[in-house]
Design a protein that fits this description.
This protein has about 300 residues and is mainly α. It contains 13 helices and no strands.
Length: about 300
């Protein structure tokens, strides 16, 4: 078989595929190419492995430690017992095993981190794309509001919002989500302006493409890589903010979280008991570091000009 026949058969095969099949094939190749480049970043692989471990612990916490680990009336040990073979990380002020509480607390802390980051990035992406697309007075007003949120301390705004609302997981998610979106909004707006200056956007407008068509079919797909990288960094910030709010007594008192464990240690005067303070603090730091490493690796893959170290 000649080379010409092979090329002709390949072209016929491609032409026989439906547009959806071609789109799926392109997405699959993009994912394979992304993973091939991502795994060259050792720090990113370390962060991804650590995150996978924490997520698995959170998902299988009911099987690993059981829901009774949170019960004060069924506490198996004495208050503030030092680490032993029965309690590898000691006990808390109520006699509950710290290892079980640490594993169970991952469920709440990671849930808040993911949902709050999703809300924050969604708000920032919507505002950034619309401000970059419509321009004019709308962009001026919305970006001045964004600048106001940027100069205001995020933690102070989150504390104020969490103080006036009921203490629940949804309050924490709302407090973090509506106070951390400005950075995403500015980044997405800058990328939107760059995308809309390209010739194919002018062609789409000339062919009758409306505002929603331009933003959803042309702008959004092009800013999604930036949004993905920003999401990993926002999750890290959300986990730290949730721990801070819980430590200040503004978290949900009915659930176990890493920040709540630190608050309990402070309130009970057990801050000198290292097994009460260090495990949740180290867990918070590791999760935040892991998301940061993943975010840096994703940024380097999506934009090699950043020159992130491997």
């Amino acid at each position: 078989m000649t080379t010409t026949d092979t090329d002709t058969r390949t072209q016929d095969t491609v032409a026989a595929k439906s547009p959806r099949a071609l789109a799926r094939e392109r997405r699959r190749r993009s994912v394979v190419r992304f993973w091939r480049q991502y795994r060259t970043h050792r720090a990113g692989l370390f962060g991804l492995g650590a995150l996978a471990l924490f997520v698995l612990l959170a998902l299988f916490a009911p099987l690993l430690v059981g829901a009774d680990v949170q019960s004060v009336t069924k506490a198996p040990g004495l208050p503030l017992e030092a680490p032993s073979s029965e309690f590898p990380l000691g006990t808390d002020k109520d006699g509950r095993g710290m290892l079980g509480l640490l594993i169970w607390g991952a469920r709440f802390s990671l849930t808040v981190g993911f949902l709050a980051a999703a809300l924050s990035v969604a708000i920032g992406t919507l505002i950034g794309i619309t401000a970059g697309h419509y321009k004019g007075w709308y962009a001026t007003v919305i970006m001045r509001i964004t600048d106001w949120f940027l100069v205001m301390p995020t933690l102070v705004l989150a504390i104020a919002l969490a103080s006036v609302l009921s203490r629940s997981i949804w309050t924490i998610i709302l407090a973090i989500g509506v106070t951390t979106w400005p950075t995403t909004a500015r980044l997405v707006r800058a990328q939107t302006l760059a995308v809309e200056s390209r010739p194919y956007i002018e062609r789409a407008k000339a062919l009758g493409g409306g505002h929603s068509h331009i933003m959803t079919r042309h702008v959004l797909p092009n800013v999604m890589p930036l949004v993905l990288a920003q999401t990993t960094l926002v999750i890290s910030s959300a986990v730290l903010t949730e721990a801070t709010l819980a430590f200040l007594g503004l978290g949900d008192p009915t659930v176990t979280s890493w920040g709540g464990l630190l608050q309990d240690a402070r309130d009970s005067g057990a801050t000198t008991k290292w097994w009460y303070v260090m495990p949740p603090g180290i867990a918070i730091a590791l999760v935040a570091l892991s998301f940061t490493l993943c975010g840096r690796a994703v940024e380097s893959v999506l934009n090699p000009r950043l020159g992130a170290s491997r």
